[in-house]
Automatic annotation (TrEMBL):
PROSITE patterns: THIOREDOXIN_2. SUPFAM superfamilies: Thioredoxin-like. InterPro entries: AhpC/TSA (IPR000866), Peroxiredoxin (IPR050217), Peroxiredoxin_AhpC-typ (IPR024706), Peroxiredoxin_C (IPR019479), Thioredoxin-like_sf (IPR036249), Thioredoxin_domain (IPR013766). It is found in: Cytoplasm. One of its GO terms (molecular function) is thioredoxin peroxidase activity. Thiol-specific peroxidase that catalyzes the reduction of hydrogen peroxide and organic hydroperoxides to water and alcohols, respectively. Plays a role in cell protection against oxidative stress by detoxifying peroxides. Pfam families: 1-cysPrx_C, AhpC-TSA. The active site is at residue 51. Keywords: Cytoplasm, Disulfide bond, Oxidoreductase, Peroxidase, Redox-active center. It comes from the Bacteria. Residues 3-177 form the Thioredoxin domain. This is Thioredoxin peroxidase. Its main location: cytoplasm. The gene is tsaA.
Length: 210
């Protein structure tokens, strides 16, 4: 699938667990349009091993995202009941109890498919039977969506490779800086560092100072 960067994020309405305890049947990212940026990320499966480290890492940084007008939303191909069961397992037992941001249930795998992160696909075998080739779970896809619903950043990690949550915060800072100042952010830019104007003179001035 072609990259979603620069395009509107795919629309969906699906069940999600809210605040770690409540199932919302018709959750949608549309509620954030015009109000918040969204970090929408996929993880492979409930009750696994790398996944809770990422889910808790996002929770630990949640206040920093919220200070930047960012809503964090997770998604996997499990059911909402599976999400809720895992949310009731204490952290010290491998669960994700204490996580408060929404976790979307994509049991039909359509959201993962539309975002290009499904780790397999349906196909017909030689006898004409429909089967799934690959793994029926989501790769570790991460999407930064602006307030207009446009995907501004996307990365997809293979199943065993965990994410860097601080890098997601850095990208949020970069996007906010671009929108606020009209400058572009060079390599390894962080909040508080010098950015530059997207001109030949601007690049020259930046390189001479760095």
């Amino acid at each position: 699938m072609a990259s979603l960067v620069g395009k509107k994020a795919p629309l969906f309405t699906a069940p999600a667990v809210i605040n770690g305890e409540e199932i919302e049947d018709n959750f949608s990212l549309n509620q954030y349009l015009g109000k918040k940026y969204v970090v929408f990320y996929f993880y492979p499966k409930d009750f696994t091993f790398v996944c809770p480290t990422e889910i808790h890492a996002f929770q630990e940084k949640l206040a920093q995202f919220e200070q930047r007008d960012v809503a964090v939303v997770a998604c996997s191909c499990d059911t909402e009941e599976s999400h809720l069961a895992w949310l009731n397992v204490p952290k010290e037992q491998g669960g994700i109890q204490g996580v408060t941001y929404p976790i979307v249930a994509d049991a039909a795998k359509t959201i993962a498919h539309n975002f290009g992160v499904l780790a397999g696909d349906w196909n017909y075998d030689e006898e004409g039977y429909l089967q799934f080739e690959g793994k029926p779970v989501a790769y570790r896809g991460s999407f930064l969506i602006d307030k207009e619903g446009v995907v501004r950043h996307a990365t997809i990690n293979d199943l065993p490779l965990g994410r860097n949550i601080d890098e997601m915060i850095r990208l949020v800072d970069a996007l906010r800086h671009v929108e606020s100042h009209g400058e572009v952010c060079p390599a390894n830019w962080e909040e508080g560092k010098e950015a530059m104007h997207a001109t030949r003179q601007g690049v020259a001035a930046y390189l001479s100072n760095n």
